[in-house]
Amino acid sequence: xxxxxxxxxxxxxxxxxxxxxxxxxxxxxxxxxxxxxxxxxxxxxxxxxxxxxxxxxxxxxxxxxxxxxxxxxxxxxxxxxxxxxxxxxxxxxxxxxxxxxxxxxxxxxxxxxxxxxxxxxxxxxxxxxxxxxxxxxxxxxxxxxxxxxxxxxxxxxxx
Length: 159
Hints:
GO terms for molecular function: dioxygenase activity. Keywords: Dioxygenase, Oxidoreductase. The protein has one domain: Jelly Rolls (Sandwich). It is 7% helix and 44% strand. It has one helix at residues 16-26, and strands at 44-49, 54-60, 75-82, 84-91, 94-101, 105-108, 114-117, 124-131, 136-143, 146-154. The strands form 3 sheets. It has a 5-stranded antiparallel beta sheet, covered by helices on one side. Strands 5-4-7 form a 3-stranded antiparallel beta sheet, with no helix packed on it. It has a two-stranded antiparallel ribbon with strand order 9-10. The longest helix has 11 residues, at 16-26.
């Protein structure tokens, strides 16, 4: 595994408006009061949703991870209100790590594959924005130096 020294915003101008919207929404007072950040299970709360934008508030208990996935064609961005997360991306057959701390943000274009983890001993709280609205997620598993698709989740469909 390696830690690249690239900027926190990936794929340039396409994600900058989303990142700005996310930062404005994350600045709203009282977001940390909407969920129990110390709950042992991950919690999510949809803050707003339209065909063009969807925003979620997510808790991250210590040790929690998303597993390898993408967000379909949706661009994404997230920022940390509390704690820190480590985002792993797949680069040249090897995971690359990005640590994101309180007040920091990451943004990415559609099709971006990652695994986001709370590797600390403390809970984390983040706000995530997707544009357009998140309708599918593809799941992956590392195998032989590559990521293999294990399934596709569709919004509103229980698997």
